[in-house]
Specification:
CATH class of the largest domain: Alpha Beta
Number of domains: 2
Largest sheet: 8 strands, mixed
Number of strands: 8
Distance between the termini: 33 Å
Number of helices: 9
Shape: globular
CATH topology of the largest domain: Rossmann fold
Strand order of the largest sheet: 3-2-1-4-5-6-7-8
Bound molecules: S-adenosylmethionine
Length: 279
């Protein structure tokens, strides 16, 4: 467990610091639901909010939401812009600290969670694979067998990297384990949606330039729009019922990895292998 030297220059580039209170609530809730037990069981339940921006709200909220499922969880906000670290310091409290740093992730422990929201969007697509590999290498390793969910095992840390709009109504993120990408989650406020492909503008950097004919993510959004149109009769019961029906139809052709309890929240998660860009 070697932490990067504190004196090393942070890896990455300062970018716009735009953030908003409650912007990442959908991502926080998904993390708490899907990764809460890993945080609960980890000996050092450290979560990193990487690139928290010009104000510390997302880190403060992440701690509050993680603590509902993992009372020992700690959050470290890491930001590459030193003035933003200084501005966040007054908000430190039990379980919450802020540090200057970048993709080297300057914390002594191997994090059980690294969350990078609206950070890679401002980098080049060609940089994503290298950044993912670097961040995945910092995650806590799996113990007790693949999947880790049994006999006290641990499936390893999780990197959640994605993008949303200014007020968090539309969100798409990739979840990666120590071994690499696992899933892609689409999450939305259903009342704000004309059709599922509205989410295309919030695809993470690895996918946003691939929403073109011939690429899997384009075919997925096309099929999702078709399923949504086919589920139009359910609209009279509300957008939620229409979404649940449309996602249920998608399962015939796409590897949906979650179920109705998540679909009800306006989410759907797909195996990464089905959406990965063509080489
Ligand atoms: C658009 S803000 C996002 C703020 C917050 N995560 C959100 O979603 O509301 C992006 C922030 O990431 C920071 N950033 C960019 N590259 C970084 C890196 N390599 N390490 C740490 N922070 C980084 C920028 O300085 C900026 O403050």
């Amino acid at each position: 467990m070697t932490a990067p030297r504190a004196s090393a220059r942070p890896l990455g580039t300062v970018t716009r610091g735009t953030t908003n209170p409650n912007r990442l609530r959908r991502m926080d809730r998904w993390i708490a639901a899907t990764h809460g037990s890993a945080l609960r069981r980890a000996p050092f339940p450290v979560a990193v909010d990487l690139g928290y921006g010009a104000a510390p709200w997302t880190a403060v909220e992440l701690l509050a939401r993680l603590r509902t499922v993992a009372p020992r969880a700690r959050v470290v906000g890491v930001e590459i812009e030193p003035a933003r670290v200084a501005a966040a310091k007054p908000y430190e409290r039990e379980g919450l600290t802020f540090r200057h740093g970048g993709f080297e992730v300057p914390v002594p422990e191997r994090p059980v969670l690294i969350r990078a929201a609206n950070v890679l969007r401002q980098y080049d697509e060609a940089e994503v694979a290298g950044v993912w590999a670097r961040l995945c290498a910092r995650l806590a390793p799996a113990t007790g067998g693949i999947g880790g969910g049994f006999g006290g095992g641990f499936g390893g840390g999780l990197l959640v990297e994605g993008t949303c709009d200014e007020i968090g109504r539309r969100h798409v993120w990739v979840a990666l384990g120590p071994e690499g990408p696992r899933t892609v989650t689409f999450a939305t406020r259903l009342g704000s949606l004309d059709r599922p492909s509205d989410l295309a503008e919030r695809l993470p950097k690895a996918l946003i330039h691939r929403n073109v004919p011939g690429e899997p993510v384009h075919a997925f959004l096309r099929d999702f729009d078709r399923a949504w149109a086919g589920a139009a009769p359910y609209a009279s019961y509300g957008a939620r019922q229409r979404w649940i029906r449309a996602v249920g139809d998608l399962t015939a052709d796409w590897p949906v990895t979650d179920g109705p309890s998540r679909w009800r929240q306006g989410e759907v998660t797909i195996a990464w292998r089905a959406l990965a860009p063509r080489p």
